[in-house]
Amino acid sequence: MKMVKSLILGSAAALVAVGGAQAADLPVKAKAVEYVKVCSLYGPGFYYIPGTDTCIKLGGYLRVDVLANTNSDHTGNTSGAGGANNRFTNGYTWRSREDLNIDTRTATEYGVVRTFFDATFSWTTDNYAGLGNGSTVYSPIGTSAAPNNAGSGNVAAGTVGVYYAFIQFAGFTIGKAVSQFSAPWANYPGNSYDGLVGGGGTITGVNQFTYTAQFGNGVSLSLSAQDQTAYYQAGVVNLGAPVTFGVPGNTNVFGISDYAGTIAPDLVAMLRVDQAWGLFQASFAAHNNHAAYYGGTELTGHPDDKWGWAGALALSIKNIPTGPGDTINLQGVYTNGATRYNIQDLAGSAGGNTIFGGTNVPGAYQSIGFGIAPDSIFVTGGQQQLITTYGFRGAYVHNWNPNWNTSIYGAWAQVNYNSTAKGYICGPAGNGVGGSLSNFFGAGSALTSCNPDYSIAQLGTQTQWTPVKNLTFSADFTYTRLDQSFAGTVAFPGSPTIGKPGAIYELKDQNTYMLLLRAQRNW
């Protein structure tokens, strides 16, 4: 018995050992793989981020532009080397750009939480600047006379731009997005040209805190506080400290921009009706003009703040009888001390127009046209004088067939100074003698009219061909006219950076034009 018992126990132990060895050889069950799943809640292109209930969509485009007769992409030859109309003016400018955007959305008990980010990576050719000694230096975008784009914003010898970065939740938009003041088409009622006047812009976004209420049937109301810095500051100009204002390489045209620190954001209200027939929008903005000091210290004093404002109406009519998908987009705007809501941040005339041309006046070397539109101007001991502007922009877009469309577009803006402001600039005689212009135009000037009022008119046409989905080739031609109110001749002191000599110049209206050729692949 004892022997049998030992045999049974030994056999059992052997079976356990063999079973353990076999179990060790069996494959271990792998953890389930998280596969990317399509998210159909928010339209095509969204996928669930593995392990979360958040959906993400990647998008963007690759764009190549070639532009004729301009030093910029894509605002025209209204100032700087482009406006010189000489050997410093580019026959062409080239840009290659990649855009990347990231859109995330998560459904919550309070509604959808959305984040959106958009950035661009660009390489843009620019122009050469004169050094006043017979040599030049390359002056690429984002740099200051530095070779190979090795300056501010440099990314692999190019530039990066952060356009949008915002959160949307429960009706709020918080972050950098297009201003609520702008119509949905912003700078582009039917074109690719960036520089149209006649309405709001901020295609590259502006920091804001916005609440939008939806009333149903396409009716909404947005109330917004947005950062005015840079994008909505046209200039609070101190005439007592003259410096370059639109003329490179020179001092003392009108005065110097004299902003103090930020004190109040711009306040925007926008009412929109968006329905099948089209769209109607009314926008209003209040803009605080906060100046620094008359001189270099607190002891010199300062002018009081002044609030400016802007109002705009926009109308879009869809599917008009001329063809399927044809549209008409129209917009009108009025501003007082809030110029950027008309002459927007990408308009070539935003920083002031200075365009050179030919002349038939005996004794004059060439002609020159000025157009400068700040928010306000002031003199030492005086108060801010707000600048008034008004204008419009619009376009008609016709679709020939699903692959071809053509648009005709135009814009216009008028800039007016009040009588006090004109006295500050031109002097009591209204001829530039004794006013701030006397600091700039030297002996030999013979102004027959000193009037800083001016207008900008633009007319263009664009044709697009889309041979396959998301691939478009376009050609966009734009004509711009500066109609200024100065007359006579001036002793212009010259501008070495663009090769202009000190000489007598006729004050005259000016014209310029440009052509954009573009290839773009959206993804």
UniProtKB/TrEMBL annotation:
Keyword tags: Cell outer membrane, Ion transport, Membrane, Porin, Signal, Transmembrane, Transmembrane beta strand, Transport
InterPro entries, per database record: Porin_alphabac
Subcellular locations according to the entry: Cell outer membrane
Region forming the signal peptide: 1-23
Function noted in UniProt: Forms passive diffusion pores that allow small molecular weight hydrophilic materials across the outer membrane.
Domain notes: Consists of 16-stranded beta-barrel sheets, with large surface-exposed loops, that form a transmembrane pore at the center of each barrel. The pore is partially ocluded by a peptide loop that folds into the pore lumen.
Protein name: Porin
Species: Bradyrhizobium brasilense
Lineage of origin: Bacteria, Pseudomonadati, Pseudomonadota, Alphaproteobacteria, Hyphomicrobiales
